[in-house]
Amino acid sequence: MLAQHVLATSASTSLAFIDGIAFDPFFRGLLSVLVGVVVLVGGTYLLLATNTGARTGFMISAAGFFGWMAAMGMFWVVYGIGWNGAAPTWELVEINIDDSDQSDDGLLFSEVERAQGLASVDLETVLAASPVVEMDLDEFAGITNLEAFAEPRGLDLDVLDEAGVLEVTADDIAADSDLAQVVAIYLSRREDLNDWRYLATSDSIRGQAQASADQLLVEEHIFDSSAEYLALPYGAFTVGGKPVLKDSPTIIDRTGHFFTETFLNPTHSEELLVIQVKQIQAKPTFPGQAPPRAEIDPDAPLISVVMEKDRGGPFPALISGLRWTPLMFTVANSLLFFALAWNLHTRDRREEEVRAAVA
To answer: How far is residue 180's CA from residue 182's CA, in Å, rounded to a whole number?
Structure first.
């Protein structure tokens, strides 16, 4: 009876351990990798060792393993995936406050020389001063997908093609925020932005930079929280970096961009970005009612957060820290692969010489 009790206790303990491993993703992943290495790599080595010998079989299997790792590392470098380094971040350069009561502040007096070029840029005023905007249809199609834009708005593509232009009124811009951003991009290309490029609210670069700006504004004690201000809908600009692929590109555009970016501009220049915000109006909240909608205070000073992109890594102008780690991984595995392949090559040459001498 005692032996049966011990056996039952041991079996239940083993089952509990196995169940715990199945539940814990770390141990399950660790065992999966170990089993995969033993079965796949070990099985390959065992097959080669029984046919070519233990030493030669090891070198062949090791060369295949490191060659495969080097090839995988190349994909990691190109696509920035896998075992990668730290992603690029936006670092604070300056927080500029433009107070209308003072004449010696604002971007015109910024310590960043390139940021001074934005002192006279105000896309919101340009939009307000344009009751009707006539946009060239071909250029407009280069900004956004014309078919996807026209269908939900009930526009006839045949009529637009015949007219060659798209007329947008101030009421259309006020009622459609997506249309307003497209018009802002269109007008920004006609304004003198001093090499700066406007970023629409849908731009992923703007979204990442806005998150960094929110954190910096609180850390630098400009605001107590991000609920005290709003980002200006037309207040995001960037300059520098590599050439940008045009909107709605064709295959020819993509091919030309690849050669321009790779061969004509192999390095990354300084990349700056400005996010502009304003404090919201103070409104009372009444009991039992929803909080009032936040609105920008037009009399509040304009706050411009000037940031520089930190690409990371020891050589940021050539390669970012995100791809530096997989690049080193690829180089290390490539060296091991070529060393093993060269060792196998010299071994084959020696065997040929021995066979030739015996013959």
So the answer is: 5
Which of the listed ranges 34-38, 97-101, 248-252 does the model predict with the highest average pLDDT?
A: 34-38
Domain that holds residue 71: 2-84+321-358
> CA 249 to CA 155: how far, in whole Å?
23
Are residues 203 and 166 part of one domain? no
259: left (phi > 0), else alpha (psi -120 to 50), else beta? alpha
pTM value is 0.79
Same domain, 204 and 173: no
User: Any residues with CB less than 8 A from the CB of 319 and at least 6 apart, and which?
Assistant: 313, 327
* Strand-strand pairing, 165-169 and 197-198: unpaired
pLDDT tens string 298-343: 889 999 999 999 999 899 888 999 999 999 999 999 999 999 999 9
Query: What are the structure tokens assigned to 346, written together?
Result: 């010299």
**Alpha carbon distance 293, 307 (integer Å):** 29
Helices (H) and strands (E) in the chain, counts: 13, 7
CA distance 308 to 294: 29
Q: Rounded to 5, what percent of the chain is helix, strand, coil?
A: 55, 15, 30
Give me the amino acid identity at 197.
Answer: R
Query: What's the CA gap between 212 and 305, in Å, rounded?
Result: 10
294 shares a domain with 209: yes
Distances (CA, A) of 282 to 90, 98, 293, 295: 30, 20, 10, 9
Q: Quick one: DSSP state of residue 292? A: P
